[in-house]
Amino acid sequence: MALVSRLLCRSRQLYAGQIIWQHDHTMSVRSYAKEAAPSNLPPLKGDEMLKGIFYEVKNKFDIALGVLRKEKITIDPDDAASVSQYAKVIKTIREKANLFSESQRIKYTIEQQTQGIPDARTYLLTLQEIRIKSGLTDDFGAEAMMMEALEKVEKEIKKPLLRSDKKNMAVLLAEFDKINKKLGIIKEDLPKYEEQLELKIAKEDLQGLKKDVTEAMESQLRREEFKDEQMVAVKSLDIRNFI
Questions:
Q1: Beta bridge partners of 119
Q2: Which phi and psi angles does 238 have, rounded to 5°?
């Protein structure tokens, strides 16, 4: 079970989705208690709210265990098939437990952190901060090109571009379309990009899990009672045997 706990904690996608779900759940409960409850009823108590969150989190954990009992995961980040299988298993858990994918998490974060930002420049800088905090790289230099496009528009209108300025925002978005075309980014290919991102994260998860398991086994073998034991290959372990 300890190995499974490591896996669930290591999974960036499951952890991120869980945190966001908890945030949404808490906010909706507060909203219900404050606004929706009849005035003659007492407001929802904090312990009741926490109890509801606990049981829902436990339910999602049980769903994850149910999937992991059936699906085989090979801890081999250097094998493309193992990475693909791991990504598939995590996706199954996400869908059954109703958790966000990494791209959905990023979209949610953008929506939350850009609410109320009036100007395009601050908006783009906020997007850059979110990208960096999410561990994503701007391999094509798209951000610099987007900033150049914004500066071009602001130079023409001789003032900062506000997001409420629909006319000039349309001009900026047209410039962004040109950038996407130049970089070969096609809207219809977004599902493919999402799949590539999930595989990248799956590989990182397996690398971290392999490191954790290796360190745990090395620590175990340093104990006197296990000094004659040989360390097995991490990829030979079957997580289902540890549940």
A1: 162
A2: -110, 110
Q: Smallest Cα–Cα separation from 216: which of 7, 55, 50?
A: 7
Q: What is the pTM of this model?
A: 0.65
Q: And the tokens for 225?
A: 């009672």
More confident residue, 59 or 5: 59
159 backbone dihedrals φ, ψ, rounded to 5°: -170, 165
CA–CA separation, 219 vs 226, rounded Å?
A: 10
Q: What is the dihedral of CA 84, 212, 20, 101, to 10 degrees?
A: -10
Dist. CA 59–CA 208, nearest whole Å: 26
- Chain segment 88-113, per-residue pLDDT in tens: 999 999 989 888 887 888 889 999 99
Residue 198 contacts residue 13 (beta carbons within 8 Å)? yes
User: Could you tell me which residues are beta bridge partners of residue 162?
Assistant: 119
Whether the Cβ atoms of residue 87 and residue 199 lie closer than 8 Å to each other: yes
| Lookup result for tokens 């990023």 | 106
Q: Which letter does DSSP use for residue 95 in this model?
A: H
Task: In whole angstroms, give the CA distance from residue 204 to residue 137.
Answer: 14
